């Protein structure tokens, strides 16, 4: 039964604003649990904020609700003589029920289009989304992605999204923090036939998404944008709420290192979203020599950042990005960019997935640089995890 249907069955006509959560995870009660009644004098928005405040101050509430298997948070109230019931589930899908108290007409709408049908302010949706991630559990992992701890402690239980996120979380940095994420086969290949698609898996995508969700900025080489037809990550409303609460903008910025500016401006990276939150315009990091060519078409679609003369000076580029407040940078490669980042000692962390494949063909490793001297510096394993498909997730950091 959908949250909306559940919502319908528990609709309490004429009642004052009531915040309640809906649970249908056996063996807990199969009827939605009304977990909070009205609080005198609160507007619907005030009621949401009241509960956010309680969650922030009493972590126990969060755990209790999660133990109950809460799947959605809903709020009901009256607006302009109309009853409104508005719910959001763990995946950020929104449900709206509208009705009049004495009319026989009962109008229901559901799905993500519901926002068009209501005059609810953006702030209302943001607050509901925040309450969803604070009170309800994270979305269930996709099938084929049961991930467990391997080291420093071996785990017997599959990790849910929040537990997995905690394994890869970085504390809010006062200074910059740059991590490389990459996937390789057992025999060290980072791409086959010009793409890493064959190496990725549901588990890898799951970890990757969580790492990206904590980023201020995603940094890529232009060849990866071209090879993978790279587009902006779509985040659900609870994920956006979580980012905001962690002091991050709704979406990570994307910065592309390029000399040629040879990028498809109609491609997915440059498409503007139509939703409530749209990702910011991509940043193109170019050397001065490339910036002088008068690329007005590019400038319409992206912001241009100049670092270096003939090649992008990556040390300078990272500093410029950090000065703009992009402190948590996730470098997604490809190998040429990652190699230069490693050579310039710009990486604080490497999150590497080893996919259980031997490809035995020619291809790049996760770093490829023309330097003849090996990069210096030690690395320490800080975490390793394993999924049921045999993917190993390794997190390396510089010794502290
Ligand atoms: N396994 C993985 O984790 C992973 C991750 C990402 C990508 N990949 C794969 O790796 C391949 C692409 O990697 P790649 O090494 O060929 O390329 P890349 O690192 O993605 O991009 C290289 C391009 O970035 C620009 N660039 C890099 N350094 C520059 C500098 N210092 N100054 C100016 N421009 C600079 C240049 O762009 P212009 O040519 O526009 O000047 C250069 O051609 C793809 O097959 C992709 O699927 C694998």
Characterize the structure shown:
Pathway: Cofactor biosynthesis; riboflavin biosynthesis. Keywords: NADP, Oxidoreductase. It comes from Salinispora arenicola. It holds the Pfam family RibD_C. This protein is of the alpha/beta class and 400 residues long. It folds into two domains: 3-135, no CATH class; 147-397, Dihydrofolate Reductase, subunit A (3-Layer(aba) Sandwich). 27% of the residues lie in helices and 23% in strands. The protein has helices spanning 3-9, 44-57, 59-67, 122-135, 161-168, 202-213, 222-228, 237-245, 288-291, 296-301, 314-323, 335-343, and strands spanning 18-23, 70-79, 82-89, 94-99, 106-110, 147-151, 177-185, 217-221, 253-257, 283-286, 303-306, 328-331, 349-355, 380-387, 392-397. Strands 6-14-15-13-7-12-8-9-10-11 form a ten-stranded mixed sheet. Strand 2 (70-79) and strand 3 (82-89) form a beta hairpin. The longest helix has 14 residues, at 44-57. The N and C termini lie far apart (50 Å). Residues 10-16 and 24-31 have low confidence and may be disordered. The structure holds NADP nicotinamide-adenine-dinucleotide phosphate. Residues 182-184, 190-191, 194-196, 199, 221-224, 227-228, 257-260, 262, 287, 311-312, 332-337, 340, 364, 366, 368 line the site of NADP nicotinamide-adenine-dinucleotide phosphate.
Brief characterization of the structure:
By secondary structure, this protein is α/β, with parallel strands linked by helices. It has helices spanning 3-9, 44-57, 59-67, 122-135, 161-168, 202-213, 222-228, 237-245, 288-291, 296-301, 314-323, 335-343, and strands at residues 18-23, 70-79, 82-89, 94-99, 106-110, 147-151, 177-185, 217-221, 253-257, 283-286, 303-306, 328-331, 349-355, 380-387, 392-397.
């Amino acid at each position: 039964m959908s949250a909306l249907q559940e919502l319908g069955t528990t609709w309490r006509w004429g009642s004052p604003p009531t915040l309640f959560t809906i649970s249908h995870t056996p063996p807990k009660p199969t009827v939605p649990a009304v977990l909070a009644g009205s609080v005198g004098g609160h507007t619907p928005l005030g009621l949401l904020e009241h509960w956010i405040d309680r969650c922030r101050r009493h972590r126990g509430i969060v755990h209790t609700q999660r133990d109950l298997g809460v799947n959605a948070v809903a709020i009901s109230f009256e607006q302009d003589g109309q009853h409104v019931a508005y719910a959001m589930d763990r995946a950020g899908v929104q449900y709206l029920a509208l009705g009049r108290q004495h009319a026989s007409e009962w109008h229901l709408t559901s799905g993500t289009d519901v926002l068009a049908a209501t005059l609810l302010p953006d702030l209302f949706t943001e607050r509901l989304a925040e309450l969803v991630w604070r009170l309800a559990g994270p979305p269930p992992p996709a099938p084929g992605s049961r991930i467990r701890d391997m080291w420093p402690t071996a785990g017997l239980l599959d990790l849910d999204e929040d537990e997995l996120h905690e394994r890869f979380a970085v504390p809010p940095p006062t200074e910059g923090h740059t991590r490389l994420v990459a996937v390789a086969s057992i025999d060290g290949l980072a791409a086959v036939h010009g793409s890493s698609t064959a190496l990725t898996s549901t588990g890898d995508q799951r970890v990757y998404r969580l790492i990206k969700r904590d980023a201020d900025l995603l940094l890529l080489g232009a060849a990866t944008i071209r090879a993978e037809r790279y587009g902006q990550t779509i985040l659900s409303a609870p994920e956006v709420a979580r980012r905001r609460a962690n002091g991050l903008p709704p979406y990570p910025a994307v910065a592309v290192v390029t000399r040629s500016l040879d990028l498809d401006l109609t491609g997915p990276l440059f498409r503007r979203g139509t939703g409530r939150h749209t990702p910011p315009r991509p940043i193109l990091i170019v050397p001065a020599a490339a910036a002088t060519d008068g690329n007005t078409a590019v400038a319409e679609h992206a912001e241009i950042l100049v670092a270096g003369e003939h090649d992008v000076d990556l040390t300078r580029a990272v500093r410029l990005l950090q000065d703009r407040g992009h402190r948590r940078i996730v470098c997604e490669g490809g190998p040429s960019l990652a190699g230069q980042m490693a050579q310039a000692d710009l990486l604080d962390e490497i999150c590497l997935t080893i996919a259980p494949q031997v490809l035995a063909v020619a291809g790049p490793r996760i770093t490829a640089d023309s330097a003849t001297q090996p990069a210096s510096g030690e690395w320490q394993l800080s975490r390793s995890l394993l999924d049921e498909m045999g993917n190993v997730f390794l997190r390396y950091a510089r010794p502290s």
